[in-house]
Amino acid sequence: VSIAVYPGSFDPLTFGHLDVLERAVKIFDKVIIAVAKNPDKDPLFTLEERVQMIRAHAEGHSNVDIDFFDGLLINYAHRKKATVILRGLRAVSDFEFEFQMALTNRKLADDIETVFMMPSESYSYLSSRIIKAVAKLGGNVEDFVPKLVAKRLKGRVGLVK
Ligand code: ADP
Questions:
Q1: ω into 12 cis (within 30 of 0)
Q2: Is residue 132 in contact with ligand 1, taking CB distance under 6 Å?
Q3: What pLDDT, on a 0 to 100 scale, did the predictor assign at position 159?
C-alpha cells in the first residue's frame, strides 16, 4: 500500500491545502495529514485548534488520517510506514526551499520519495500567511478558507501578528 504523509503548519487550513488533499486521495491508498508542532514558527492557532479545523473538513475521506508530529519528518514517516512525503507547489517561489528540503530528506532517508502536486490555479497564490494578514486588516477571507476557519480567524483578529 502507498502511504503518503502530508506535512505542514496548517496555520490555518486553506482551500489550497484541501485542493492538494483532494488530488492526493485519488492517488495514494492513505494520506496522513501531519500537523507540525512548529513552536519556532510562532503559530497563530494552537496545535489542537489546527488539528480540529482540519478534522472538521477532511474527515469525510475514509483514507485520510489526521495527526501531528514533532521532530524530524522522516522519522515520523518511517514510524507510519509511509514511503511518500506529499507537498503542494504553488508558484516558483516555493521551488527553491522545497528543492532543498526534498533533497535533504532524501539524503537522510532514501526510501522516502517527496512528491509534489500543484493546486488549481485559483489557489496557487494562497498562503496561510497572506490570509492571516488579510484577516488582521478586517478583510473577508471566505473565498480562501472554509467558513469555520474564517470564523475562527475573525474571532482572533486582535491577536493576529
Ligand atoms: P509549511 O509550514 O510546512 O510550509 P503550510 O501549512 O504552509 O506548511 O503548507 C503545508 C503544505 O501545503 C506545503 O506543502 C505547502 O506547499 C502546501 N500548500 C499551502 N498552501 C497551498 C496552496 N495554496 N496550494 C497548494 N499547496 C499549498
A1: yes
A2: no
A3: 55
